[in-house]
Amino acid sequence: MPENSTPTPSTADDLGFTLKHRRRWPFVVGAAVAVVAIAAGITVPRLVPSASANDVKGATLSVATAEGNSAEQALVNFVAKNVAPKYGIKVAFKGLADSTTLNRAVSEGDVAGTVYQHKLWLGQVLQANPSFQETAATPVFRWGFGLWSTKWKSVDEIPDGATISLYSDPANEAQGLWILERAGLITLKPGIDKGSATQDDIASNPKHLTFTLLDFAAQSRSLGDLDGAVGYTEYYLAAGIPLDQRIFAPAAPDEFAGQLTVGTKYLKSDNVKKLIAACKDPAVQEFLATDPNEKGILLPLDAAE
């Protein structure tokens, strides 16, 4: 799933938290205030978190994606307006800033789910944040993803020694290598897990391609300086690059399908069960196949580009 930062485990700050020394005095003062308030008959707000909307009948279920992702927002809004009522639930879109914030919110039940990522990205997130408990509940769509070039009009025109960019996070680098193999530009070693392939797994490279790793936005901005780049359609369209400069785009494999991801501890929640069922509704696939705002960006699961 596309994102602007790679969830690579390293320090506590990278995992979204900071270790601090605990100070006891605020708790002592808080206890004294609570005793005085009770004696005075004053109601003190509860210091325990309220129940997740996932467990509250009739509550609105937020489905989050990255802020500014208009295609995913349109999908969530379609489900909210046209599908969720059939399943007796209320759904609303919520934009959040980054991968760690999104996944923490899902894990803790602050939001009901996200359609922001594929299984391999989720695996990276969970490895980097061991406290997160999330499950990819069902595939919903495929992202438009392919080989782009402003210099060459077909795969066959790519010259010997060409420079090709892949994304800098491991999951999407692997997807890029899969695309290049499908295009006949490289082959990968037999028997490897292509969902976790790296450049070390390239068995043959007949055009002697060289590779450069860039993040999502940088790659599309740098396309004019490259012979080609393998990336998500949404970033190229956002950069003003027309769809006809995507010169090769096979349908992505199942490993890279966009998933409805939910908090693992809420899988048995009635609300979450209904949300999963709503995302499996055939109307969702019809919307992806026909809505002009989704064209080339989010594709139905049976799409063959």
- Under CATH, the topology of the largest domain can be stated as D-Maltodextrin-Binding Protein, domain 2
Give the uncertain stretches in residue-range form. 3-48
* Helical residue percent band: 25-40%
- What strand line-up does the widest sheet have? 2-1-3-12-4-13
Let me know the average pLDDT: 86
Secondary-structure element order, N to C: HEHEHEHEEEHEEEHEHEEHHE
Query: What distance lies between the first and last C-alpha atoms, to the nearest angstrom?
Result: 18 Å
**How does CATH name the architecture of the largest domain?**
3-Layer(aba) Sandwich
Secondary-structure class? alpha/beta
Individual helix count:
9
Say which CATH homologous superfamily of the largest domain is assigned. Answer: Periplasmic binding protein-like II
Question: Can you tell me the CATH class of the largest domain?
Answer: Alpha Beta
Radius of gyration: 23 Å
Please state roughly what percent of the residues sit in beta strands, choosing from under 5%, 5-15%, 15-25%, 25-35%, 35-45% or over 45%. 15-25%
Largest sheet: 6 strands, mixed
What count of structural domains? 2
Give the overall silhouette.
Answer: elongated
Task: Give a count of the beta strands, DSSP E runs of length 2 or more.
Answer: 13
